[in-house]
Design a protein that fits this description.
Strand order of the largest sheet: 1-2
Order of helices and strands: HHEEH
Helix content: 25-40%
Largest sheet: 2 strands, antiparallel
Radius of gyration: 15 Å
Number of strands: 2
Shape: globular
Strand content: 5-15%
Structural class: mainly alpha
Number of helices: 3
Amino acid sequence: MTPDNIEHIQLLTVQEAANRLSISASYLNKLRCFGGGPIFIRLGKAVRYLPSDLDAWVEENKRANTASTSPICVGGAS
């Protein structure tokens, strides 16, 4: 990121990020504290999320079925 595009960054609050992910803010907080959640940004005491990081986290967590522990392979590779 360069200083020229910093003014265009959209940072989401925990509640906004949770709404975007269709999960509760409490669950998102637990994921952040115990691991497994999306990348976040800490600004002082404030926690913020980039929409692109939330989208990447969703993509990383796609599964073909409930028994699957690994992500879906794109492009036919297994």
